[in-house]
């Protein structure tokens, strides 16, 4: 046999790479090519070209890459996971690598090498990848290479959001608009990619040692590498930039193929014919137009709505100019006194709104007749401030008002205006001629004009042709509503499935509309938009989008013929009004002044305050200056005057932190450090007074800043945490750097209840538990001998708090008496602070009345008073002439109408609701809610606050804030709110109650007899039995069948964007079922469990009620299944018999799940295990009716015996534990059928028992008694119930222990014992400590490989899932854990890739631990012995 060549084919998300190695591993051929989504065609051409040279060669070959699975199957060539391929190449050519950073088209990965390799990979966001860089390059009118060239000459780096290409645009656009240098922006884009990679992927694991840079972007872009090297402080000897880095994955696949069999290249050539786009699995939508005639009629209807035009040459007398300096375009409209449009201009701004406006004005002046005169000009839009200052435009007007003016001209009494521009989307809801609701896309621009343009470009088609192709496509493909970057992957997928360009173009039109309606505006039904609808903005010039909008909303809408320049037209109408009011001459620059006009741009740091912002200064040719800073909007004019209006944010910040610590010599007990973080914005006065009283000098961490954020960035374990939480890591670092040896930062699960009627008094899961995350992820706390005190404390019970502090601080030698006195003093100070803030609130209200001023209640969390977190928004509001109050300064004056739709369970939110209620009683106040990006709880609160305000005809304004401090969108909202306030005052519209809130529908005794009760699906095996148990109790319960993709769409329609994936699935299942026509809506009820805990799950009932109400089904009763008496219904009662039946059903379900998962992967006769499960499900149902305990035990024994006797193959497979959020863990659709994937990949899935979750809930009562303010009675009840329930699975445990191949579950006390070794048991929201305990139990029992599943941005999982991975590995270095995020937009390929890497490590570990190796046998026996020793004592105590 001749020489063998080794081929690696890497099919990535945007490119195809091929590498051929000879027997000595030399690279003899390589090729790199973009596939523009046509994967199979590109691969086929490549292989045909290679055939000419290789037709007689003997080869081995492997395929890899995120899009390579289908290719490998069709070519009949083995597939190797890309991270494995990459590590092969790294180990062969650059073995000294410690960490490899690899950026691809849509994926970013960090691989940590070592004994247990770890992969970090982007999940649901493609910010900071190659596609992101391409998008940004388009914005600067260049390509990636051009960006690299520009970045070589940068001087300044601006903060840019890299979380999302769209946000980055929103940051870059103002910089361009303000004239920042393109060189600086290019370098800033690269820096954003670096920050995203480190903060978003490293997630708490520092990047140290030798770092290799791999993948296309890092190979071709030297400046991107440079930004990484500087940020990571790498020395030259630590930087590895290998030759052919872009081929590394392909080279690795070639190396891996050496283990595969050798065959002739002929074989591959014959299989090329199989390379086809796979059969379609896409869902299709109705065609946009069924025929040419229908389109012609559509065109006729829309051509009616045109503005009256007049030739400019015929115009004389006064004219009025409107300028709209948009985010990507510049528009001009000139009208005469009669309102005729006499001149218009629409063009791209080329990245400079000022220059493009000057050019457009010059053109206008050239054609303006001598008899005509511009008497007044108004500018609106993104570049308003700069252009108003530069060109001396008479007035600036907020763009929302300009759009309303334009729309009213076409349709008087308009109720709804949707404007989709280049990258912004505005929706205005109008009542009484006043805007009362504004929605902007601050979260995402999928669905804006530039999104369609970018996609057309990526398919290399001109925009017009792309749109035209979609109009008559018979099969528009459903692309969902996703992130721009991931939408590309969806398009690739449907292209592989054979969709043509027309189907995609039509699908995108639908996507844009659905995204606008369901994600941005969050409509639930078309009725909400009213009958008078105007659509505008350049995107609606696209007939496909307009038609899709009409089809989706079932409305005929008005698109003015000047849809693209409506802002400018509205501004021109306002200019005419202003002229009629004042009669003043215009100050707009004349043609001769414009000819000589020049502007120079420079930057400098402000230095006026601690932020030391970077300012951009535009100096005009007449010597005037216009200054903008990226942070405080001081540059909106030429000068800045400090506002004298009351600002309670500034007052409260000083009042909370303005304490003077003891001098060192005055503090006999030394220093204690307190971080300026989360709960300290509420409790610092308490703890400062407490420690000062005890003789400590209190050291507070520094003022929050970007620098503080960057200091802690490396130790943040979860990328989707809110910004205030991420800052905490930096504050702890600051205290460490100050040399503080004692740091105090307690976990506080509950706070004092401020309003008696509130349902509960929890803190948010992050505020409660974050200190534990700090301890687990900051290694410096260990290394530097620092004592970090982070106990769980009951702040809601002062007497108990004294006892707990005596226990926790005993090591400091403090007496009980000292502690009691200090707590009393501290409590008095805390009350004094509250009184002061309330008094200040009342003082401001009196000031407003006296001076006839207006105020804004800026409602948020305590930590929003931090200037770095609120980005100077309070100052911006006072700068607009409005006073600023905090929610807690007026909450005591409010009175909420209860019960609220939601469960009022969090202390900070109770204030929010009370403050909102108070605002509804005053005409001089409005409420603006601040919401941190990623705050899951606000998915509950924002809708509730909105409802309270709406009921009283008040405007609701929401502002989302995160680490990015571009205030453009915020300014629009606040100014629009101000305009609405003024307009309402002018029209004398007062706040008044419009309607009563609907009362809860009670489920009655009569309903019980004839109503069908729908329950959402969660765990198919368990719920089939639970359904039977409920029916035996006389309830007609129907557990909904498996979830369909349509249910997810339904959920997205009805549930808040920020709500977690399980809530979307639950609501989606219910709404899809009710709309299916299968049920009589007058005889149907819905049931949902409600734990009353501190996680959002207790509010799913509120979500369901809102969805029902919005869909016109408010009469359907929703039953709360709870044991705490949160809600009661006469027709549904929980009885002891029912509980017994349910426990039996759950034990049966746990047993069947356990034994089937342990046997299915090994069965000799495929399908036998599933058949046996089905048989038992049928057999068990009658026994639930009889409830005979003997029969129950007999069934358990038989099940174990029958599964024990199934014929199995003699193979050893790695075990993979599946833990996580309860619904995602058990629901096959929610976790993308993870058990099937694990089994298909050759492993065995291990699922913990469902019963354990209920036992964990009960166990929490024991800990609450021991460490918090729980009662002795609660503790006894918990212990008793645990004992009773454990009795129901005693026989199961015994039988499983006796069996040949199954393991029994361990008791909840043992699980708690495991968790307690590495964390407190006070984490009781969601899955809490139980999730960590499950991981530890699996690792202890030999399943070292764990998939930890969590809904994207699930708050409890930040702490006990991702937050604990590092701590678990510290105790168990062999742990192979992979966290996987799930949500409607998550990419399945990505989830599978993470799993595959984890499995490859699992197989490797299995190989090295093959029986016979002395080490492995010793290990197993000592592990077993250790387990027995650990639990022996605990078991004896329990037995007693």
Features:
disordered C terminus; alpha/beta; 1440 residues; five-stranded mixed beta sheet; globular
The tally of beta strands, per DSSP, is: 38
From the alpha carbons, calculate the radius of gyration and give it in angstroms: 33 Å
Strand percentage: 5-15%
> Regions with pLDDT < 50 over 5+ consecutive residues?
630-641, 1413-1440
Described by strand count, sense and barrel closure, the largest sheet is: 5 strands, mixed
Mean pLDDT: 87
Distance between the amino and carboxyl termini: 75 Å
Brief characterization of the structure:
The protein has 1440 residues and is of the alpha/beta class.
Describe the structure.
There is one protein chain. This protein has 1440 residues and is of the alpha/beta class. The chain is 47% helix and 14% strand. It contains 55 helices and 38 strands. Strands 3-2-1-4-10 form a five-stranded mixed β-sheet. A hairpin with a 4-residue loop joins strand 16 and strand 17 (425-431). The longest helix has 36 residues, at 816-851. Mean pLDDT is 87; it is low at 630-641 and 1413-1440.
């Amino acid at each position: 046999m001749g020489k063998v060549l080794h081929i690696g084919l890497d099919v990535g998300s945007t490119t195809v790479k091929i590498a051929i190695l000879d027997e000595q591993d030399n690279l003899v051929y390589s090729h790199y090519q973009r596939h523009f989504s046509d994967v199979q065609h590109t691969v086929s051409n490549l292989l045909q070209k290679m055939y000419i040279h290789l037709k007689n060669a003997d080869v081995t070959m492997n395929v890899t890459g995120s899009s390579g699975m289908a290719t490998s199957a069709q070519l009949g060539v083995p597939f190797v996971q890309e991270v494995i391929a990459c590590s092969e190449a790294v180990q062969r050519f650059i073995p000294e690598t410690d960490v490899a950073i690899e950026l691809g088209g849509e994926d970013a990965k960090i691989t940590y090498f070592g004994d247990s390799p770890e992969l970090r990979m982007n999940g649901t966001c493609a910010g900071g990848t190659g596609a992101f860089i391409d998008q940004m390059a388009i914005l600067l009118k260049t390509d990636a290479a051009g960006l690299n060239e520009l970045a070589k000459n940068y001087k300044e780096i601006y903060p840019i959001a890299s979380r999302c290409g769209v946000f980055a645009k929103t940051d870059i656009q103002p910089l361009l608009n303000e004239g920042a240098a393109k060189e600086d922006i290019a370098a800033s884009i690269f820096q954003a990619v670096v920050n995203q990679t480190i903060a978003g992927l490293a997630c708490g694991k520092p990047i140290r040692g030798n770092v290799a840079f791999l993948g296309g972007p890092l190979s071709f872009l030297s400046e991107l590498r440079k930004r990484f090297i500087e940020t990571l402080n790498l020395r030259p000897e630590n930087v590895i930039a290998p030759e052919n880095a872009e081929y590394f994955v392909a080279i690795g696949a070639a190396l891996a193929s050496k283990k595969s069999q050798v065959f002739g290249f002929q074989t591959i050539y014959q299989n090329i014919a199989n390379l086809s786009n796979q059969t379609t699995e896409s869902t299709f939508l109705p065609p946009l137009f069924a025929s040419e005639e229908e389109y012609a009629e559509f065109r006729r209807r829309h051509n009616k709505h045109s503005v009256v035009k007049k030739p400019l040459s015929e115009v004389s007398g006064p004219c009025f100019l409107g300028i709209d300096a948009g985010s990507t375009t510049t528009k001009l409209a000139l009208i005469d006194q009669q309102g005729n449009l006499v001149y218009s201009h629409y063009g791209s701004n080329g990245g400079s709104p000022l220059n493009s406006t000057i050019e457009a004005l010059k053109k206008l002046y050239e054609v303006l007749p001598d008899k005509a005169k511009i008497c007044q000009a108004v500018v609106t839009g993104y570049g308003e401030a700069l252009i108003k200052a530069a060109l001396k435009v008479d007035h600036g007007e907020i763009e929302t008002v300009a759009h309303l003016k334009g729309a009213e001209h076409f349709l008087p009494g308009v109720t709804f205006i949707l404007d989709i521009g280049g990258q912004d989307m505005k929706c205005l809801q109008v009542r009484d001629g006043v805007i009362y609701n504004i929605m902007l896309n601050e979260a995402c621009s999928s669905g804006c004009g530039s999104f369609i343009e970018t996609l057309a470009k990526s398919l290399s088609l001109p925009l017009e042709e792309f749109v035209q192709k979609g109009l008559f496509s018979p099969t528009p493909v459903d692309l969902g509503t996703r992130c721009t970057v991931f939408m590309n992957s969806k398009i690739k997928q449907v292209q592989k499935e054979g969709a043509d360009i027309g189907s995609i173009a039509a699908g995108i039109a639908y996507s844009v509309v659905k995204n606008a309606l369901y994600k941005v505006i969050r409509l639930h039904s078309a009725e909400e938009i009213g009958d008078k609808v105007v659509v505008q903005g350049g995107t609606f010039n696209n007939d496909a989008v307009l038609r899709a909008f009409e089809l989706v909303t079932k409305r005929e809408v008005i698109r003015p013929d000047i849809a693209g320049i409506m802002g400018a037209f509205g501004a021109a109408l306002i200019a005419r009004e202003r002229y009629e009011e004042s009669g003043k001459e215009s100050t707009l620059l004349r043609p001769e002044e414009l000819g000589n006009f020049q502007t120079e741009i420079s930057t400098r740091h402000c230095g006026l305050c601690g932020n030391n912002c970077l300012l951009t200064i535009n100096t005009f040719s007449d010597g005037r200056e216009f200054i903008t800073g990226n942070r405080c909007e001081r540059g909106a004019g030429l000068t800045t005057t400090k506002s004298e209006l009351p600002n309670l944010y500034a007052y409260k910040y000083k009042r909370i932190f303005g304490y003077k610590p003891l001098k060192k010599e005055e503090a006999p007990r030394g220093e204690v450090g307190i971080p300026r973080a989360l709960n300290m914005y509420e409790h610092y006065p308490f703890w400062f007074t407490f420690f000062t009283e005890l003789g400590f000098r209190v050291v507070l961490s520094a003022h929050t800043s970007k620098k503080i954020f960057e200091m802690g960035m490396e130790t943040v374990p979860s990328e989707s945490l809110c910004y205030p939480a991420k800052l905490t890591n930096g504050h702890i670092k600051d205290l460490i750097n100050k040399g503080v040896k004692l740091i105090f930062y307690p976990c506080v699960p509950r706070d004092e209840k401020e309003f008696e009627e509130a349902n509960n008094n929890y803190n948010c899961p992050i505020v409660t538990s974050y200190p534990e995350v700090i301890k687990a992820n900051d290694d410096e706390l260990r290394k530097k001998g620092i004592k970090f005190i982070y106990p769980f404390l009951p702040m809601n019970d002062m007497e108990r708090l004294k006892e707990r502090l005596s226990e926790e601080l005993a090591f400091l030698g403090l007496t009980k008496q000292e502690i009691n006195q200090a707590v009393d003093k501290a409590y008095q100070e805390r009350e004094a602070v509250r009184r002061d803030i309330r008094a200040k609130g009342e003082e401001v209200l009196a000031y407003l009345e006296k001076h006839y001023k207006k105020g804004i209640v800026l409602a948020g969390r305590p930590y929003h008073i931090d200037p770095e977190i609120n980005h100077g928004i309070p100052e911006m509001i006072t700068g607009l002439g409005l006073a600023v109050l905090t929610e807690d300064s007026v909450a005591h004056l409010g009175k909420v109408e209860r019960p609220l739709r939601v469960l009022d369970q969090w202390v900070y939110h109770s204030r929010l609701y009370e403050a909102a209620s108070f605002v509804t009683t005053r005409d001089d106040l409005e409420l603006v809610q601040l919401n941190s990006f990623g705050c899951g709880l606000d998915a509950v609160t924002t809708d509730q606050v909105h409802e309270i305000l709406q009921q009283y005809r008040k405007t609701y304004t929401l502002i989302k804030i995160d680490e990015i401090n571009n205030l453009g969108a915020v300014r629009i909202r606040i100014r629009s709110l101000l305009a609405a306030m003024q307009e309402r005052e002018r029209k004398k519209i007062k706040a008044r109650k419009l309607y009563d809130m609907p009362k809860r529908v009670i489920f009655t005794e009569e309903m019980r007899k004839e109503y069908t009760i729908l329950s959402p699906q969660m765990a198919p095996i368990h719920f089939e039995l639970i359904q039977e148990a409920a029916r035996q109790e006389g309830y007609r319960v129907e557990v909904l069948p498996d979830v369909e993709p349509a249910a997810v769409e339904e959920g997205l329609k009805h549930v808040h964007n920020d709500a977690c994936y399980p809530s979307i699935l639950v609501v989606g299942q219910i709404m899809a079922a009710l709309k299916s026509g299968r049920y009589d809506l007058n005889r149907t009820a819905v049931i949902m469990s409600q734990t009353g805990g501190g996680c959002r799950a207790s509010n799913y009932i509120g979500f369901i009620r809102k969805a029902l109400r919005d869909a016109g089904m408010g009469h359907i009763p929703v039953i709360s299944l709870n044991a705490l008496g949160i809600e009661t219904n006469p027709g549904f009662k929980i009885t002891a018999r029912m509980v017994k039946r349910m426990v039996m059903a759950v034990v049966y379900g746990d047993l069947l799940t356990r034994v089937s998962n342990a046997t299915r992967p090994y069965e000799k006769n495929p399908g036998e295990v599933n058949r046996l499960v089905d048989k038992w499900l049928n057999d068990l149902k009658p026994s639930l009716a009889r409830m005979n305990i003997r029969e129950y035990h007999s069934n358990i024994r038989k099940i174990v015996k029958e599964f024990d006797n199934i014929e199995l193959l003699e193979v050893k497979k790695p075990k993979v534990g599946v833990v996580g959020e309860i619904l995602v863990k058990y629901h096959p659709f929610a976790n993308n059928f993870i058990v099937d994937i694990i089994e298909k990949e050759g492993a065995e899935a291990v699922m913990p028992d469902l019963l354990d979750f209920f036992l964990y809930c009960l166990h929490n009562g024991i800990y609450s008694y021991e460490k918090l303010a729980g009662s002795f009675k609660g503790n006894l009840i918990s212990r008793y119930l645990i004992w009773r329930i454990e009795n129901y699975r005693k026989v199961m445990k015994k039988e499983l222990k006796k069996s040949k191949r199954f393991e029994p579950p361990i008791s909840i006390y043992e699980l708690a014992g495991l968790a307690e070794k590495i964390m407190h048991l006070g984490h009781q929201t969601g899955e809490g400590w139980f999730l960590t305990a499950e991981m530890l139990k699996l690792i202890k029992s030999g399943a070292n490989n764990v998939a930890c599943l969590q809904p994207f941005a699930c708050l409890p999982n930040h702490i006990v899932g991702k937050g604990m991975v590092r701590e678990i590995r510290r105790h168990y270095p062999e742990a192979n854990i992979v966290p996987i995020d799930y949500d409607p937009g998550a990419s399945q390929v990505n989830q599978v890739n993470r799993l595959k890497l984890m499995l490859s490590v699992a197989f490797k570990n299995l190989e090295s631990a093959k029986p016979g190796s002395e080490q492995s046998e010793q290990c197993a026996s000592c592990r077993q012995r250790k387990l027995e020793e650990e639990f022996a004592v605990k078991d004896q105590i329990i037995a007693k």
